[in-house]
Design a protein that fits this description.
Helix content is 31%, strand content 16%. By secondary structure, it is α/β, with parallel strands linked by helices.
Amino acid sequence: MTATKRLKLKIALERYDRHFPFFDQTVTPPEGVEFEVYQVGQSVTLRDGTARHKRMLDDKEFDIGEFSMSSYLMARERGMDITGVPIFPRRLFSASQMFVHPDSGIEHPRDLIGKKVALSSFQTTLSLLAKGDLKFEYGVPWEEIKWFVTSKEKVAFEKKRGVSIESLNKKEDLGELLERGDLDALFFPHPPLSVLSGKCKARRLFRDTRAEEMRYLKKNGYFPIMHILAMNNELVKREPWLPKAMMKCYAQAKEIAHSYFEDPGWSQLAWGRHYFEEEQKMAPDLWPIGLKANRANLERFIDYSHDQNLLGKRISVESLFPEQVLDT
């Protein structure tokens, strides 16, 4: 089924390689659809601005947008105006995003008990995953850590009794706070520039991060989801064929992005093609589309979210999506 008349849809995305086909229009939109593609960041400013999640959920500026998985779970449970499609354009392992000072003596997640750890927001998906992994992968109760956040929460929630969450002054540099010992660790999908540039010292908590991530992948069978593609409810109600059509569209974009590596000089990383070949042998598809291939991943996030009081009750995976994509 296709649109009865030509649809012009505003779609807000990050500048990932798998989104290049949308920006350069090499992907074929669903029949009867025209994309107006915006390059919008969430915590960073891109060509068309920042605050993508707020602009999608609260301002309804976009018809379709890349959205926080954690905030989506909360919004869905609360009946807010947003519907997800089982397309997941951003994924990260938490192990790579945990930073400590090189001289801190912190060598294992258990060393974080009683310590001060900074997050973007408590409900940011990386924050949700990292806290959940601490507890269920490493036996470290996240409730026994002092949390400090730099951003306002997208969806309101009541924190768990006894949990410490404080706000940081946005003007203070996180790298400097870590160096002074005012913070013991940073869990961030985008480490501060002072750390990335080397101005302030920091290292990953796991010294052999790649080995830890491979252990996680082999044990759990998936690359953890960070973002979901979302639409506003009215659009899905009006055009019920569109969610499945977008899945086909994303599958095509994924194949196009995959083909970039046919040219060994496509990436400015000198060994990019070598790593690409190595990863294909380890895990041929770390970016599956559809509900079935992502069910265990989604169930884990629901459990983590409920444990952290972000969800008032456990919800089903099926409740996250419109009926027309439940067989995917």
